[in-house]
Design a protein that fits this description.
Rossmann fold, four-stranded parallel sheet
């Protein structure tokens, strides 16, 4: 018997209030779709790809670990006075793309990269751009695509 769908939301807590808004949007979509999910908090955006990789590997090697259908990466990076922003954004995005393409991980990308808190809130709020909700929808859709092509080849 197939296991029910379960997703992992990995949320960077560096900007906790923004992370909460992103999670609200994501969980609304997942709840509406009737799928289960777990939440995992990490310190910042840079740690998100490693946490997803740890969870994915554990699901393959540890019987007690949940088997996730997909991962939703949430967080925010706000530009500061140094080029740290550029490095974090680039390396996090690249690592998440590698997990999706090379690791066959179903992924919803909900990492906001912006200039200031006002822009972050406009993107994070569930009643505005709702990046959390959009990333959950993307993850659900890519899970369907993955099942179609990887598990039911014709």
């Amino acid at each position: 018997m197939d296991q029910p769908e379960r997703f992992l939301i990995v949320e960077a807590r560096f900007y906790g209030d923004i992370a909460d808004a992103l999670v609200e949007g994501a969980t609304q979509v997942l709840d509406a779709a009737g799928v289960a999910y777990d939440r995992l908090e990490v310190p910042g955006v840079f740690e998100v790809p490693a946490a997803i990789q740890f969870a994915a590997k554990a699901s393959l090697t540890t019987a007690a670990s949940p088997k996730y259908s997909g991962y939703i990466a949430l967080g925010c990076v706000i530009r500061g006075e140094t080029d740290h922003y550029d490095h974090i954004c680039r390396e996090t995005s690249r690592s998440l793309m590698d997990l999706a393409v090379m690791g066959n991980a179903t992924l919803g990308f909900g990492i906001i990269t912006c200039e200031n808190r006002k822009q972050a809130w406009a993107r994070a709020s569930a009643d505005k751009k709702n990046v959390g909700g959009s990333s959950a929808k993307a993850c659900l859709r890519m899970n369907d695509v993955k099942k179609k092509y990887l598990y039911n080849p014709k």
